[in-house]
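Methods — Computational structure assignment.
A single polypeptide chain was analysed. Its primary sequence is given first, followed by the predicted tertiary structure written as structure tokens.
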Amino acid sequence: MIKLLEPAQAERWDNYVMAAADGSFFHLAAWQQVIKRAFGHPTYYYYFEQDGQITGVLPLTHVKSLLFGNSLVSNAFCVYGGILASDDQSFKALQSQAQQLARDLGVDCLEMRNRHQAHPEWPHKELYVTFRKELDTDVEKNLNAIPRKQRAMVRAGIKAGLVSVIDDNVDRLYTAYSESVRNLGTPVFSKNYFRILKEVFGKSCEVLSVEHEGRLIASVMSFYFKDEVLPYYGGGVDAARDLKGNDFMYWEVMRRAVEKGCKVFDYGRSKIGTGSYRFKKHWGFEPEPLFYEIDLVAAKQIPEINPLNPKYQLFIAAWKKLPLPVSQWLGPWLAKDLG
């Protein structure tokens, strides 16, 4: 039987996600609260139950925008998602429910953000990859495993006197992140979104900032899930480039994660051929294809809502020139629909 998630069932849902081999941080029930509070989008968190046991879950978010289209996504604002199921019956039931909902809502498409192909009959975006690597229990072995040129960048940051600090709020994260994404020509999320993430996920959400002589250089928000660490939102101020602030920052996340007992470093999603793609490869990570599989509903082809689309180039160029306070004010109005 398919049911919609109620707050009283969130713990059961999360227990299922934690036990599932392909369960990810982005399948957790708390994302429903985060998305509703931060962006106001409708969510549909379905689970399949047999004999009183959950045997499948599917988080869905409906993002409808005049500028960026109308989609039902698992999961919006997340790099992974899709159906988790213990058996074929549960999988097919949840897929059928999602397809029916997509048609009832009249969306352009239904998107499943899978790490592994799950819907071979659907087209998928050959655009994104993820970077994941197992960590050694020895901190120095992890440092030595970084390719020589990238390791030299990390050591340069150490030599420059950079230090990492764990922040108890998102203020410095937002300063560094908003400047970084403005420089890339991308609208920034609201500061409230980051506050909500920190509040809702608690100890599983950590902000690490890098300082040089007391000045902020870079900052990153990381998620902890099972035995994995996922640095998710990060950026640096102008001085980060010369001081190798980002290189040092990600090393510090890795070092601290090893000390916490983490076994996997998930560097997250990148578009093929971009700067972040090359940066992660320089760390010795190998790209793994992501299967963002699309069930076309009203759309005739996969929507191209991404910065590589030529029609967005003039907007991106103009956005890069905005004063930072203006981008922080305008950005959230656009970013809330870029899920």
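Note: The longest strand covers residues 53-65.
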